[in-house]
């Protein structure tokens, strides 16, 4: 995704659009984040709430974002200003765009650091460090990496430079082609891992952990995190999908694209979870061990299985590419805004914002070592705070206002032409968009504020 001039050019083929949007959605959120937060919040009940959020909030927001992007035809700030003008609404709606631009900058600052872990693991795997490794040694490996600010900074820098180069130079074609084998590749390796996880003796336990809900483990905080993750994992609430929508040709079905993206994204996350928790339980590891979960478990599987060196190295390469195809979509709203509204061309904008994001990322790097004891909110490190603020507050807030706009402000003709649904389906969709999604988001926010005060 790049060369995003004012959206004159539309997608070379609509498949490419779906691929790029899937490339944005599928990333660290599925492989790294979903398993570890599921582990922290106790499994089944959390997963159920997450799935409900995808269905009742995520998909409607995703449709809304594509509609706004296609109708507004510009970067998120300008697209919102355009649709607001066209529908006789206040210019203040473009605040949704600002919120998104800011959220993107903050998200990428930590996303790049975590993607750096995957790059480090790719090289480790390539060198054969994981062959025959046991869970305890993988743990030591991971803590050693995290303990070194210089190593983390180095890999964060590698990811940042790479992301900037892709976005600045606009090697759109390359990335689009890469996604074509990236997604099937990731899916196939997950199937190989799934096969392995059935041999660990803990597959059923893992399945139960993910799919038998124990509601006593659920708190309002867990619900907020599940909802926030639905936004994060689908790349919604900040305008990334709006940018993609602005390239979508009129004929293409938003419904079909949106459903396909949500399905692929959810499938990859659940597969990753099944595999990772099989390894967790087979090796007596702790499900709630936090952000390191993916990195403390999968090397054990690769170290143990036939062809592990090959699959492991390929897997981490694919994780890096999945992260990269998401990263470019995270920075895209701000770059296209600079380019279209401020006359700062794509090349300059990518470097300016990339360097700013790189500097902010140093805070996340240090959160795992030197600044580990520095708490911003309650027990939260700087990384935890950035993650919480963006994923659980800024994205849902952005998404809330998008649904409100599409449900209440957008003219019926525009909505109907953007979303050609049968009467019955439109009524269902409008009900969800008008009431279910916004009320759910507000309810979760309010309940969290209320439960915090107690
Ligand atoms: N959806 C991506 C993931 O699951 O890794 C992360 C992401 C991409 C979040 C783009 C937000 C965004 F705008
Ligand atoms: Na995702």
Automatic annotation (TrEMBL):
Subcellular compartments: Membrane
InterPro entries, sorted: Na/ntran_symport (IPR000175), SNS_sf (IPR037272), YocR/YhdH-like (IPR047218)
CDD domains referenced in this protein's UniProt entry, alphabetically: SLC6sbd_Tyt1-Like
Segments crossing the lipid bilayer: 12-32, 44-63, 95-123, 152-171, 178-204, 224-247, 259-282, 309-338, 350-368, 388-410, 431-449
Keywords, sorted A to Z: Membrane, Symport, Transmembrane, Transmembrane helix, Transport
Membrane-topology annotation of the record: Multi-pass membrane protein
Pfam families, alphabetized: SNF
Cross-referenced PANTHER family: TRANSPORTER
NCBIfam families named in the record: Na_transp (NF037979)
Family under the similarity heading: Belongs to the sodium:neurotransmitter symporter (SNF) (TC 2.A.22) family.
Protein name as it appears in the record: Transporter
Organism: Thiomicrorhabdus lithotrophica
